[in-house]
Amino acid sequence: MLTKTKIQAIDCQHFINGQFVDSQNKKSFENINPATEEVLGTVAEGGKQEVDYAVAAARRALDGPWKTMTLEERSKILRKIGDLILERQEELAQLESLDTGKPFSLANSVDVPRAAYNFHFFADYIISVGTDAYQQNQAALHYSIRRPVGVVGIIKPWNLPLLLLTWKLAPCLGMGNTAVIKPAEWTPMTATVLMEILKEAGVPDGVVNLVHGFGPNSAGGAISEHPDIDAITFIGEPGTGSAIMKSAADTLKKLSYELGGKNPNIIFADADMDEVIETTIKSSFINQGEVCLCGSRIYVERPAYDQFLERFTARVKELKVGQPFEADTNVGALISKEHYDRVNSYIDIAREDGGVILTGGKRPAGIEKGYYLEPTIITGLDRNSRCVREEIFGPVVTVIPFDTEEEVIMQANDTHYGLSATIWTSDIKRGHRVAHQVEAGIIWVNTWFLRDLRTPFGGMKQSGIGRTGGMHSLDFFTELSNITIKL
Ligand code: NAD
């Protein structure tokens, strides 16, 4: 049974200087529904020329009415954008689900409400914060002012398309910048609808521009190289981040990176096992495991290992993998054939490395089309297996027992990634102690994905550069000038 009547998918054009346009050469590509393998529509394929037009419009808009708007006026526009997202919530959630293969229920309860909240949060935040001021005895008064960075390139992944785009766009606009956005090629629809919303909310033409396309030698590459783009905020894989950094080096752009993760989920035997199981189901398999924060390496203290595995496996077997628009679906389809094959290749690696597939590891019976994979639990691997070391970004977790705190901290840190970690224990001292030693930018104790948008968000090691959230976002999207007055 369908949750709601499906709406029509849309063809996606670029949005440049306030107008929807095709590519100059009329090039386009097909948008595939990962849940059915059917064509949803066409997407304009942009390249250097479209990025040039978009950047020129964004540069002009920096000096237009946007420049003289007060913070309060921009805050009002952000609030209106959030309101309009909520007015179109169901439509946006349906498009997001069609594009990504994620359950409609998830898009409708998490992705779209949070996208609206990103605008509502920054609408309030930007008018509530000040800047530094220091009086240096009777000698001088120092104070700082914020100015926009300029034209910002926003390059996005496909897993949480609207949520992550708005996470960057809201503070970017709030601080008076203009933007050129490139959504992931797999998920162009909600970004396109957002452009209508921005226009309706009163964002002046040229302030936000959208160019669809691919990465290297396409729209993404053109943004990274463009001499008139001042900063790039990128969310995606570390390898892509490295390529963008190389292209951006010649013009010394300011960069913000939110990259991949291979996040440890550390479960001590004294933890509340009911809470552990319910939260670990989510932290492992929500959004088909295609969330950078998913805890894909599960470490369980040996006295609780058998009990955890038995209860966790039983609950995972109850998850329903199926069509995104069926009301009781827990796990939808993976994003693409290419990604589906890649995730499956890790299950082959696990088998070759002597791993035991406790559940999953295959296509669900009875589903012929679409990129579906059963939630998969693997045991019996050691820390050298690529399955334990590399980001799989799918519904696959490894579970490994441990005996001591020192051992689990060493294993948790034995990775190039450092995005997030979860620690489960009823010993609060141990919670703090372990949290201080785990190398990750975001650490949860006895919870997961509990967010306050004022807090610093981002990864260490190869999981990112810089932080977003609250003041950290404002710092990236502004240049601070310090002014000193001699007294
Ligand atoms: P990706 O790096 O393959 O692509 C991301 C974007 O970069 C896409 O829009 C793509 O077209 C573009 N791109 C690719 N090559 C480019 C190039 N050479 N120059 C410019 N642009 C280029 O990532 P993905 O597969 O879309 O997303 C999955 C990755 O994103 C995972 O590693 C995941 O952990 C990470 N991610 C991180 C966070 C976070 O907050 N840290 C959030 C979501 C996803």
From TrEMBL:
<dbReference type="InterPro" id="IPR016160">
    <property type="entry name" value="Ald_DH_CS_CYS"/>
</dbReference>
<comment type="similarity">
    <text>Belongs to the aldehyde dehydrogenase family.</text>
</comment>
<dbReference type="InterPro" id="IPR016161">
    <property type="entry name" value="Ald_DH/histidinol_DH"/>
</dbReference>
<dbReference type="InterPro" id="IPR016162">
    <property type="entry name" value="Ald_DH_N"/>
</dbReference>
<dbReference type="Pfam" id="PF00171">
    <property type="entry name" value="Aldedh"/>
</dbReference>
<keyword id="KW-0520">NAD</keyword>
<protein>
    <submittedName>
        <fullName>Aldehyde dehydrogenase</fullName>
    </submittedName>
</protein>
<dbReference type="InterPro" id="IPR015590">
    <property type="entry name" value="Aldehyde_DH_dom"/>
</dbReference>
<keyword id="KW-0560">Oxidoreductase</keyword>
<dbReference type="InterPro" id="IPR016163">
    <property type="entry name" value="Ald_DH_C"/>
</dbReference>
<feature type="domain" description="Aldehyde dehydrogenase">
    <location>
        <begin position="20"/>
        <end position="482"/>
    </location>
</feature>
